[in-house]
Structure formats: C-alpha cells, structure tokens
Amino acid sequence: MAGATIMGDEAEEGRSKGVIIAHDTRWMTYQEAADFLGMKVESARRRAQREGWPRQLGNDGRTRVGIPGDIAAGSGASGATDTGDDHPHPGEMEALREALARERERADRAEALAAAAEQGQAEARERAARLEGELDGVKLATEHLHDQLAQATRQRDEALSLSLERKAAADAEQRAREAAEAALERLQSRGVWARLRNRP
Question: Does the predicted TM-score (pTM) go above 0.85?
Fold first, then answer.
C-alpha cells in the first residue's frame, strides 16, 4: 500500500504508534471531516483521536486528519450516531490528567514565585525602613556635631578675646613698670633721691 506523507511532530507521533496509512486515505481538515461525517467539529476531532487516525500539517499551516477510505460519508461514529456527548477515550482521559497535572505544577511554581517575590518585597521594605531610621540617626548626630562645633568656636573666640585682654593688661603693666623705673633712674642721677631719703 502506498503511504501518504506525514509532516512535523505529528508524523513522529504517527510513526511511534505504528499508524499504517492506506493509499485511499482522505486528508481533510477537522471542519471538512465534520461535514463529511455529519457531526460536530469537536466530535470529529474526538473520533479521530479515538480511532487513531493519522494527522499531518498542511502547507497552509492547518492540521489535516487522514480518514480511511472505508469510512462512508455521513457515517457518524463507528457503527452509531455520534452525538458529541460520548465518554472520553481512556487515552484522552490520560492526556487530560497529564495536562491537568502540568497546569497544577505550573500554578504551584507561579504561586511559589509570587510568594518569593512578596517575601523579597517585604525584606526590601524592612531594609528601606531600617536605612531610613539610620539616616535619621545620622542627621541627628550631624546636627549635634554642628551644635558642638558652634559652641567650641564661641569658647575659642571668648578665650582668644580674654587672652588678648590679659596680654594688653600685662603690656600696660610692663610699660608702667618700665616708666616708673626710668623715672627713678632720672631722680637718682640728679641726687634728688638721696636728698629725699635723708629728709627728716
């Protein structure tokens, strides 16, 4: 029997399951298959999965399902009318369970990431509050240092002023002493001092 070409990942799926493609296989989109079989598109999709019909990706990017040549038009489900309410195939149930497990795993990861992000934000807020408190402490310490510096500057200026006053007083006293000694020397040189000492 001549085999039809199956392209892409779905071809790999067909080969791995050992699907045999007959020469009279008709390739249709799911919409075309639904019209051919006389059922809804979703029912046609489920039947193709249940029957294990091969699938391939067309050049237009649309998936096509291979309907065996012995399937008559308007045949509905195998030997019975497909109402679209049939129970899922066990393989389909397993696929749904696996998909649900993957979604739950993704949801758990997303929840863990969200929790980690929230914890990181809380830690960042705590660090920001701590730094803000430390900054306030630095500001207060800086203001205190400014006050101490201003006080020390005033004390230095006062001490300098007092020192200048004392020096001026000492200089005046020294000048007065020198003037008195000079006057005494003049008196002594004239003999006035001896006369004054010998006066009754």
Answer: no
